[in-house]
Fold this protein.
Amino acid sequence: QVQLVESGGGSVQAGGSLRLSCVASGYTVCTAWFRQAPGKEREGVARIDWDGSTRYADSVKGRFTISRDNAKNTLYLQMNSLKPEDTAMYYCAADLPPCQLGTRGYWGQGTQVTVSS
């Protein structure tokens, strides 16, 4: 059983930065960040697997960086040049092979990110 706990959310002005963290209690192979704004569907933000391979949503490419410290069982999301449309609840997710992030696996409770104009 894997448990995930997010932290690092908060309120910032447009153009600012935040760094989200997600600590996992167990081994993970595939990890990702999702977000959901009120009235909108949950969307994938970024993914990083055990080998370091990454994927980003087009809306955050060049602004967000996902990383992980396997020794500390921690997932990070560095968010720069934040925009009001980035406002959402951010969740970390993890799964083991065969990874199906977004449809199965483990989820954290979420951390709120609010970006004001």
Remarks:
- The chain has a mean pLDDT of 95.
- The first strand starts at residue 4 and ends at 7.
- The CA atoms of residues 36 and 66 lie 17 Å apart.
